[in-house]
Design brief:
The structure holds two protein chains of two kinds.
Chain A (H helix, E strand, L loop, with lengths): L1 H6 L8 H10 L7 H12 L4 H11 L3 H8 L13 E6 L2 H5 L2 H12 L12 E6 L11 E3 L2 E3 L4 H10 L2
Parallel strand pairs in A: 1-2
Antiparallel strand pairs in A: 1-3, 3-4
Helix pairs in contact in A: 3-4, 4-5
Chain B lengths: L25 H6 L4 H9 L2 H11 L11 H7 L9 E6 L8 H8 L1 H14 L4 E6 L4 H16 L15 E6 L9 H8 L23 E5 H13 L1 H5 L9 E8 L5 E6 L2 E2 H8 L9 E5 L8 E2 H4 L3 E2 L1 H6 L8 E6 L4 H15 L5 H18 L7 H13 L16 H15 L1 H5 L16
Parallel strand pairs in B: 1-2, 1-4, 2-3, 5-11
Antiparallel strand pairs in B: 5-6, 7-10, 8-9, 8-11
Helix pairs in contact in B: 2-6, 2-9, 3-4, 3-6, 5-6, 6-9, 14-15, 14-17, 15-16, 16-17
The chains are: A alpha+beta, B alpha/beta.
Chain lengths: ~160, ~450
């Protein structure tokens, strides 16, 4: 459904009652912007141009204002991402525990640079800033799961096991 | 989460039941006395009583700034016409900090009970939890918790048969360190880019949707139930009287036993590193410590000796307790490289609103990159100090200089970078290549 719509340049929320629920939670419409963007991204995988217009209408602002907001946040994307988004933490505690070498290892293994997606569309690699799990450094976030105290070997095993 | 046997006088407060299975559930929280404080507050205290008690406890915010909580609440106008808002700041992003995540995972009800108590005190009926997007499991835990709590009449109308009403909404961020700064958080909650606001007006006067808003860190909120249960005097008896209480300390970096430790405010830093954290990894020597996340002034191994971990002791050493994210570095660390790592973090996370910060952080990265490649120029060291001065305006900390940017991010960059350069000067000088050609500007004729 969403694939078909997307190819026609259309966008529809899969669950309109969720949209209503989100809007009803806030004392003003515009505050629903981030939750609606999250909803679009979880449904479509990224924020499509038409979805931006739909959200703008819902929260009663110009589409450029939605674009202004979403472009600020690292985790909103206007381009499709791989099936698995790898966020490799680079900040100090992880770096002190081998995160730089780990990031290089992932780049070599997947043959991509940070910001890129593998040709088969399976992995997108991002360098991340502090993920808030410094006691288990080095840390990689794969989609919404933390993988902690990683070594190159453990990470290889993990990536190979992902369907 | 671990507790030390080394402080027999101190009984854990915030972590006291985190070892229990399902400590995140309502049942377990109630079995350890959870929501008794709320019941007591709603049945026997006026909002004014609560503010007085919290003021008397000298509780100071655990998010980084250390502002007295009760005084913040007192700023909220009593104007009944404007709605008031309370926000739990769960956007924990300061590098080296992971204590709020522990509370969200293991004891979210303790935070929520604190939220309800705080909301009651400031006459607020709509509260938010702003949680960073990366904390997805914690977000799910919070969602379940809120559902459970509405069902148990601890949220919604007539909470615990009082006339008090409160709703709580969970709001997810989308990857922006700056949104942990309270005014940036407000803009983000309003659906805009997370750009800090000028103060005054302070959020307690004019915050979310221009209404009075109190923003509190997760750990600060989690302290409230026990203060109301055991009283301000009990709280004040733990650690230094001017900034007391149980405190969660985060240990990471080159340490044998990294983790979150609960200890009384004012515990010696060496006790945290050598007893709780079991010392430096691989039997190496301690070189440096960042005591309050990467936004703090770095301490040398000598400075760590005899230093107590509380707001005022650290301020006296011209650094900060911040978020109590203690990052330990051993003698293998290249300080220029570590400094570059910190500068890169800030360059990436600068919101871009103020020129000194947006441009300055990028220049810092550029110069430090040159230095780690041993291609530094002679005046690079002065240039680094000059840039930190331009971003943070720090030439004389004793005069209480307060930055050149809208929010404290400016100082947060300047403090660590300047202190790395000043305290480990010889490592920076060793990166200067004397053979480097000095390019002269082309003469335009």
């Amino acid at each position: 459904m969403s694939e078909k719509n997307r190819s026609k340049g259309l966008f529809e929320f899969a669950n309109p009652s969720r949209v209503e629920r989100i809007l009803s939670r806030y004392p003003d419409k515009r505050s629903a912007t981030l939750p609606l963007l999250h909803l679009v991204q979880s449904q479509e995988g990224y924020i499509t141009p038409v979805a931006i217009e739909v959200i703008a209408q819902l929260v009663d602002v110009h589409p450029s204002e939605i674009m202004d907001t979403l472009s600020f946040y690292t985790l909103f994307s206007t381009e499709p991402k791989g099936k698995y988004l790898l966020q490799v933490c680079q900040t100090l505690s992880c770096s002190l525990n081998g995160a730089d070498e780990l990031a290089d290892h992932v780049c070599r293994k997947l043959d991509i640079q940070p910001g890129e997606t593998t040709e088969d569309g399976k992995f997108t690699l991002m360098k991340a800033e502090c993920l808030g799990s410094c006691d288990t450094a080095p840390v990689i976030l794969i989609n919404s799961d933390y993988h902690e105290r990683l070594t190159a070997e453990k990470l290889d095993k993990l990536l190979d096991s992902l369907p | 989460m671990r507790q030390s046997d080394n402080s027999p006088m101190f009984n854990p407060v915030l972590t006291r039941f985190m070892h229990l299975d399902n400590s995140h559930t309502l049942n377990v929280y109630r079995s350890v006395g959870g929501y008794a404080a709320l019941e007591k507050v709603l049945k026997t205290k006026t909002p004014g009583d609560v503010i007085e008690e919290i003021k008397a406890s000298n509780l100071r915010g655990r998010g980084g700034a250390g502002f007295p909580t009760g005084i913040k609440w007192e700023f909220v106008p009593k104007d009944p016409l404007k709605p008031k808002y309370l926000i739990s700041n769960a956007d924990e992003s300061e590098p080296g900090t992971f204590k709020d995540r522990l509370i969200l995972n293991k004891a979210p009800h303790m935070m929520l009970e604190g939220m309800i108590i705080a909301s009651y005190a400031i006459d607020c009926h709509q509260a938010f939890i702003y949680i960073r997007e990366e904390f997805y499991q914690e977000y799910k835990t919070l969602e379940n918790m809120v559902k459970e709590v509405y069902h148990a009449n601890l949220l919604g109308h007539n909470i615990l048969a009082s006339n008090y009403q409160l709703d709580v909404v969970i709001h997810r961020g989308a990857g922006a360190y700056i949104c942990g700064e309270e005014t940036a958080l407000l803009d983000s909650l309003e659906g805009r880019r997370g750009w800090p606001r000028f103060r005054p007006p302070y959020p307690a006067i004019e915050g979310y949707l221009k209404c009075p808003t109190v923003v509190q860190n997760v750990e600060t909120l989690a302290c409230l139930p026990e203060i109301m249960n055991r009283g301000a005097d009990w709280f004040k008896s733990i650690g230094p009287e001017k900034g007391p209480g149980p405190k969660l300390f985060c240990l990471s970096g080159h340490i044998n036993n990294p983790g979150v430790y609960e200890a009384p405010m004012g515990i010696p830093l060496t006790e945290l590193i050598y007893n709780y954290g079991e010392g430096i990894r691989n039997k190496r020597k301690l070189k440096a410590v960042l005591p309050g996340g990467v936004s703090s002034v770095v301490l040398t191994a000598d400075e760590v000796e005899g230093l107590n971990m509380d707001f005022d002791s650290l301020a006296a050493k011209r650094t900060i307790l911040g978020s109590a994210g203690i990052i330990v570095m051993d003698d293998t660390v290249d300080m220029v490289n570590a400094c570059l790592n910190i500068a890169r973090f800030f360059a990436h996370e600068s919101c871009g609103q103020c020129t000194p910060c947006r441009e300055g952080t990028v220049w810092l990265v550029k110069i430090l990159t040159r230095l780690i490649h041993k291609e530094g120029r002679r005046r690079d060291i002065d240039l680094l100090l000059d840039i930190t001065e331009n971003i943070g305006g720090l030439s004389d900390l004793s005069k209480g200089s307060f930055g050149k940017t809208i929010c404290p991010f400016g100082e947060a960059v300047a403090w660590p970078v300047r202190s790395f350069v000043e305290k480990f000067e010889e490592e920076f000088f060793a990166c200067i290549s004397d053979n480097k050609t000095i390019y002269k500007a082309a003469v335009i004729s």
